[in-house]
Every structure is written in structure tokens, then in C-alpha cells.
């Protein structure tokens, strides 16, 4: 296991980048704790795989350093970094059996055959392939091959880090849940440093101790699922985490009040001198449809998703989402919305402003 340090790290695929916009990965300075499980979460093209490939040694950064436990490995080849990486699409040896595919990383390091057999059997149990150990990989389905790739990544106990690049893309939904559970158990049992790249918030939030949210080549927030939900540090985090995501509404903020088209929204903190683009963010869970109190809205439609209702409403020309309980009635006379002041975040140029105690 290793503590991973990103020191002034950045990368451009251009030979002579002229501005920050030319960088696929903008400057990063972060320490990732030894033995923690992280998920790298963001939309396609945000820099997740670029960062993972730099950590693994498949890509050398344009600037900065990467350190494992304080040792500079920026120029070290992948083989010397003692990591295991599982890619989005299966990488297996078709002419080998499932057993030999799983055993390969251990045999390559000269491990005793009795240990190899024991460990292969253990991993095969985890990935549900005990009955297929003596079958050749050629001819197996894509999801079966990906399970072999996952197993081969997990078979060694002595790695500095386990890196997963969207490894469950080709796995069927039920097996995804099973394998995520097994990955969490593996982390609990052996304490590997794990980094899991995904664009799926459910995968990220159920797998990781901490989620690293990336947007436009930057890390915009590292936090627990609760922190990302309660206090999104960037409007993208609020939008990307949650289903549906946070309502982001242009506003004017003065003191402990936000003003939308002149209508007041109370806040629990005070703000001064906010410039640039100012917005408030409130999650649908903290918005309530009402008959008499609150601000005017026009209900556009109601979607019953079983556990609750999602109300799509027009709020001063902008569409917002409001949650209601499964058994809550939504009447024609319910044309007001109330935001919980304790859960209204304030943003200036997309970044959360803490404010002062009001």
C-alpha cells in the first residue's frame, strides 16, 4: 500500500501548450491516504483516465511529480510501481484457462504453487467463476472476461495500489452490485489503496471512502458521500451528485437574504461583497411544495418514481425539481415552494462561499 502524492501535477496532450485551456489535466496538488478507497468521478473527458494513467505510469505528466510514500516515481516504469490496473474492457490471455489467467501475476513473481492455487481459488469464489477455472478464456462472454481481469487485478496482496478504470462497463447490472461488494470486502480485508474511475455516481458513492469529483480537468471536491451531498463545493458537484441534482438558481445575495426576481429567500449565514456570477443551490430534497407560504411556482408535471415523487416546476422562468413523499398529495392549489434555509448554498463563479454566522 502507498500514500500517493500529486505535486504540481498537470498534463497536456499538445507539444507546446500555450494556455490553461490546452491542459487536459490542470494543476493538481493532493495527498491520497495510504490504504484509503477513492472513486474518481466525473463526466467523460474530464481527465479521470488521464490521471489514472499517470498514477500507473502509462503516461508521463507534462509537469510536476507523482510520489508513492514520498518516493518520486514520475519517471519509473509501470512494472516498478508495484500496482495492479484493471481497464474498462477486458484484457485476458485467450489461450490460457481461467485458472492460469488468474495465476499469472503470482507465477510471474515466483510465488509457490500451493499459495497460487489457494489464492486463485479464493479469487474465483469472489468473482463467481469457480466452475469455469479449467475453461479456456477464448469464447467466454465479455462480462466473464472482465471478471477475469478484475480477478487478476485483485489476486496479489502486496501491491502499492489497485487502479480500476470503469471496470464494470460490460458487466450485467446484478453482477455489478456483487462485484462492488466484493471490492469493498477486499479493501476491508487487506487495506489496499484503491482508486476507482467511474462516471456513475452510484458506483462511486457505494464503493469509496472518499469521492474525488473532477470537472474540466480539475479536482473540484474530495469528500465523503455525505459531504458531497450536503455541501457541494462547486455547482458541478451539486448538479452531478444526486438524482435529480441540485437546483442552481441565479440570485442576488445581500446579508442573510437571497433575492430571485425581487423575491426573498432567507439564509442562515451572512454574505458581503459577492461579485461575478452569483447563484444559490438547493437540492430537491430540501424544497417543499406548499399552498400558502413560500415563493410562486408553476407545476409542470409530477413523476412518481415509487419511493417519492419528483415535481418539475417553473420558478421565475427556470425549471426546478422538488421532492414530495410517496403518499403526499399534490393538489392544483399547491403553487408555492419553500426552501429549507439551512440547506441553501451560495455560489460565486461556481464555487461555494461559506459566509458568516448570521
From TrEMBL:
Gene3D superfamilies: 2.40.50.100, Nucleic acid-binding proteins (2.40.50.140), P-loop containing nucleotide triphosphate hydrolases (3.40.50.300). Residues 4-241 form the ABC transporter domain. InterPro entries: AAA+_ATPase, ABC_transporter-like_ATP-bd, ABC_transpr_FbpC, ABC_transpr_MalK/UgpC-like, Mo/tungstate-bd_C_term_dom, NA-bd_OB-fold, OB_MalK-like, P-loop_NTPase. One of its GO terms (cellular component) is ATP-binding cassette (ABC) transporter complex, substrate-binding subunit-containing. It comes from the Bacteria. Keywords: ATP-binding, Cell membrane, Membrane, Nucleotide-binding, Transport. GO terms for molecular function: ABC-type ferric iron transporter activity; ATP binding; ATP hydrolysis activity. Coiled coil: none annotated. Belongs to the ABC transporter superfamily. This is Carbohydrate ABC transporter ATP-binding protein, CUT1 family. It comes from Poseidonocella sedimentorum.
Amino acid at each position: 500500500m502507498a500514500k500517493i502524492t500529486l505535486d504540481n501535477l498537470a498534463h497536456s496532450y499538445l507539444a507546446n501548450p500555450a494556455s490553461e485551456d490546452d491542459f487536459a489535466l490542470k494543476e493538481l496538488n493532493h495527498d491520497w491516504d495510504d490504504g484509503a478507497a477513492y472513486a474518481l468521478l466525473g463526466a467523460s473527458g474530464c481527465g479521470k483516465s488521464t490521471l489514472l494513467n499517470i498514477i500507473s505510469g502509462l503516461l508521463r505528466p507534462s509537469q510536476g511529480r507523482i510520489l508513492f510514500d514520498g518516493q518520486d516515481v514520475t519517471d519509473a516504469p509501470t512494472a516498478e510501481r508495484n500496482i495492479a490496473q484493471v481497464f474498462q474492457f477486458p484484457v485476458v490471455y485467450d489461450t490460457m484457462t481461467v485458472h492460469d489467467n488468474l495465476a499469472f501475476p503470482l507465477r510471474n513473481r515466483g510465488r509457490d504453487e500451493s499459495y497460487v492455487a489457494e489464492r486463485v481459488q479464493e479469487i474465483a469464489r469472489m468473482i463467481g467463476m469457480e466452475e469455469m477455472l479449467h475453461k479456456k478464456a477464448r469464447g467466454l462472454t465479455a462480462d466473464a472476461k472482465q471478471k477475469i481481469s478484475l480477478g487478476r487485478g485483485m489476486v496479489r496482496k502486496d501491491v502499492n495500489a489497485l487502479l480500476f478504470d470503469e471496470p464494470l462497463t460490460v458487466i450485467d447490472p446484478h453482477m455489478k452490485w456483487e462485484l462492488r461488494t466484493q471490492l469493498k470486502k477486499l479493501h476491508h480485508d487487506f487495506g489496499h489503496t484503491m482508486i476507482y474511475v467511474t462516471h456513475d455516481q452510484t458506483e462511486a458513492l457505494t464503493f469509496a471512502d472518499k469521492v474525488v469529483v473532477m470537472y474540466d480537468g480539475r479536482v473540484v471536491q474530495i469528500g465523503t458521500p455525505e459531504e458531497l451531498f450536503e455541501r457541494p463545493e462547486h455547482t458541478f458537484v451539486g448538479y452531478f451528485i444526486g438524482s435529480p441534482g441540485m437546483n442552481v438558481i441565479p440570485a442576488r445575495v445581500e446579508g442573510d437574504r437571497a433575492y430571485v426576481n425581487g423575491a426573498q429567500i432567507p439564509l442562515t449565514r451572512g454574505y458581503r461583497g459577492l461579485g461575478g456570477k452569483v447563484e444559490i443551490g438547493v437540492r430537491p430534497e430540501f424544497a417543499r411544495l406548499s399552498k400558502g407560504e413560500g415563493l410562486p411556482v408553476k407545476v409542470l408535471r409530477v413523476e412518481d418514481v415509487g419511493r417519492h415523487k419528483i415535481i418539475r416546476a417553473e420558478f421565475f422562468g427556470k425549471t426546478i425539481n422538488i421532492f414530495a413523499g410517496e403518499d403526499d398529495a399534490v393538489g392544483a392549489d399547491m403553487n408555492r415552494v419553500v426552501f429549507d434555509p439551512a440547506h441553501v448554498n451560495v455560489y460565486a463563479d461556481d464555487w461555494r462561499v461559506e459566509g458568516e454566522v448570521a
